[in-house]
Design goal:
Number of helices: 16
Number of domains: 2
Helix content: 25-40%
Largest sheet: 6 strands, mixed
Strand order of the largest sheet: 10-11-12-13-15-14
Distance between the termini: 30 Å
Number of strands: 15
Radius of gyration: 23 Å
Strand content: 15-25%
Length: about 425
Amino acid sequence: MHSYTRSYEKEFAEKIRYPRVHILFGARQTGKSTLVRKVLPQDALVFNLSNPGERLRFLHNPSELISLCRALPQRKEPWYIFIDEVQLIPDLLNAVQVLYDENSERYRFILCGSSARKLRTTGANLLPGRSILHSLYPLTSLEYAPAPSSNLPVISLLEKGSLLEPLQTDVHRGDFPFRDLEDRLLFGDLPGIATIQSPEERREVLHAYVAIHLEEEIRRESAKRDFGVFLRFLKFSASESGGILNLQAVSKESGLSGPTIRSHYQLLEDMFLGFMVPAFSCSTRKSILSSPKFFFFDLGVRNAALGLEFTPDAVRVNPGPLFEHWVGVELYKRLQYLKKGTLSYFRTHGGMEVDFIIESGERFYPIEVKWTERPTLQDARHLIAFMKMHPERTPHGYVVCRCPYPLSLTERITAIPFWGV
């Protein structure tokens, strides 16, 4: 079986050498366990808490981990100890702290989790001062192989070490099978989906993800009494994903109170199933909107939660919103890996809107998303207006579209292909 390489793999392999406790968060099926097992030495100890027998063993006696590790032979190299789904037994974090404080050089603990809710609500010990937090997301464009027929240089605006330097070339491409844009808008970018050829099998996997993970896992995490109401909220939040959060509309549609709706959205964030993009705040204008946007972390999961038909027509009927959603998720993933820059959006009550703004230091990089192959200055009119508001802090603006190669629309505005995000 082919072993695919993740873009975070090299950095992760280097960082886990540091004498710290390493905590890797991410939604289910983003490839956390696969990544960790790939970089671990062969003699690493592995405990999978999703295994009922293993979970029961440590649930009854979390301190057994201490006894087990203390019994390991002394040696120069550290022992690597991997605990998967650690959120299922938060008390194990206290055992890890005891062992780390005894001898921080003897062990390298790597802990994986697909939910921060239990850890947060139980006040679990996240080992401040002792731990390094990591995150893993669905695939980015740079993790796919280029189009078989493409001889264009690989470009990227968001590359390590040079945030938004226009059109960085010689960027490394990954080895996941190439997929066209419409396929990714429909089925998303989970690693397991990317390696499945059959559309029918992809549909089954995504529907199972919603039925098993989103329903059963959320039920376990939240212990909600009226789970049917939450499922209606889930479908509605999927339909509104990528749009400005309107609590009144959600409340009217779902029959839930504002505080309950906020807690539901927080649950999705805690399980890494979505994230908020705040409104741009560095403006003196009183007419701008302040509500955030909510995005599902993956379009395939969002489409399954919505009950969308997985056919090409589902994209082609109205591709613009899906494309904008996809670009927003792509930018978010890349910025999280960079650990540099933040994502926001800009919109006024009068209707002027810039889809995304990357804030890096004192600079703003506005981005418009257009489902066009032939961008014009008309597509950049809101960029131009925004750049006039912040002339000193906005060096360049971008139109992300389906053009086959980068195009200069003005001296300070460039249209770029979607695969260059």
